[in-house]
Amino acid sequence: MKKLYSLIERGYKIEKIATGFGFTEGPVWNKEKEFLLFSDIPGNARIKWSEKNKIEEVMKPSNKCNGMTYDKDGNLIVCEHATSTVVKEYPDGRRQTIASYYEGKELNSPNDVIVAKEGSIYFTDPTYGRMAGSGFERKKELDYQGVYRIHPESGKLELLVNDFKQPNGLCLSPDEKVLYVDDSRLYHIRAFDVKSGGSIINGRIFFDNICSGDTKGSSPDGMKCDEFGNIYVAGHGGIWVIGPQAEHIGLIELPEVVSNLNWGGKNWDILYITASTSIYRLKMKIKGNKLNYMN
Description:
Layout: E1 15-19, E2 24-30, E3 35-40, E4 45-50, E5 54-59, E6 65-70, E7 76-80, E8 85-89, E9 95-99, E10 101-102, E11 105-106, E12 113-115, E13 121-125, E14 145-150, E15 157-164, E16 167-172, E17 178-183, E18 188-194, E19 200-207, E20 223-225, E21 231-235, E22 238-242, E23 248-253, E24 258-264, E25 270-275, E26 278-283
Antiparallel strand pairs: 1-26, 2-3, 3-4, 4-5, 6-7, 7-8, 8-9, 10-11, 12-13, 13-14, 14-15, 16-17, 17-18, 18-19, 20-21, 21-22, 22-23, 24-25, 25-26
C-alpha cells in the first residue's frame, strides 16, 4: 500500500458528484468547456456533468452508447451498443459511422475506444450490447469477439486479434509502445507491443486474476494509464492499480461496482469514475497519461 500513497493521499476521500442512473459508463472530460460526458446505458442516454450546471441530458436515445473519447481535432468518438457501430461526432453536429461491419458481417457491439497520437483508433468488440439491459437482444453475426484498429488515413478496419472471450477496457502506455486490453470473462489483462505502423504483436498475459480470491465478483472493465505507466482498471472491490512491471500496487475502494474511469480537471489530476448508479471523483497526486485530446 505504501506505493499507492505516492499516487493518492492517505485517508483519501472519494466524492459522489451525481447519482440516480441505471448503469454509468464511458466517462470523458472536456477541458476547454470543463464538463464530463458519460453514458447511462440502461437509460439509453448521454449525460453531461459540470460544476456549474450539474446534470444535463444531451442525447436520448443515445443508441445505448458506451465508451467515448476525443480525437486530436476535438471530434467525439463513440461506441454504440444498439447500432453495433463506432461513430465520429463533429463539433458542428455531423455524425459519421467509421466502423460497423467487418468482412460483410455486423460488429458485435463496440464497447470501449482509444485514439493513439498517430491517429489510429483502437476499440474492443464484445457481445454485451446484444444482451437485454446493456443493449438489445439479438443474434450476433461474427463468431468471435475481437479487438480492432481503424487506420488513421484510409479509415480501413483491421482486425488485430480475435481470441478474447469478452474484450473490454483498453489503454496505451505513455510511450504508446504497449497496448493493454482486459478480458472480462477471463479476469486478466493482456499486453501487446505496438508496431510503428499501428498493428500489434507479441500478445501475452500481463496481469491475471483481477478478482478477490475465489470470488469472481465484478469483472475487469474500463482501464486507463497514468503519466508514469501505472494502470488503473475497474475490478472487484473498486479500482485496481497495477504498475508497469505488473506489480499490484493497491486497491482504490468504492461503494459501488466500478465500470470505468478517466482523467479530468484543469491539470488532468482528477479521476472521474463511473460506478453503477453514480459518478465519483478523486483528486490524485499524479496526472493521467496525456492522449492527444488532453494536450
